[in-house]
């Protein structure tokens, strides 16, 4: 805001100084405008980088899934994880859980997560979301009263 105002009034002032033949003063104004311009460019780069970081965080938040205990990351259809719930909720960090025989452990905050055991069955592969959605869901159920 200040920079834009400074530039707008600065150029006008430089022009006026040149018109009045005060070249040295005009040059000084132009020089400070140039410095200001370089600073604004640098600030712009920093802001762009921050914006990109925020976009990454938002993207991450969209692809993160909570299973009631831990977080999983859906990375282009590939499920990654699990990640520590405590660390993510507290610090926004995805900390890989270290797998033990019966539990996962966060080596950052030492939280423990039980590994659910469902017999010896091979892990079920969930059907892709799209095919699940294609199934028709009955909206009206006929019930016979009495
Ligand atoms: Zn943790």
TrEMBL record:
This is Uncharacterized protein.
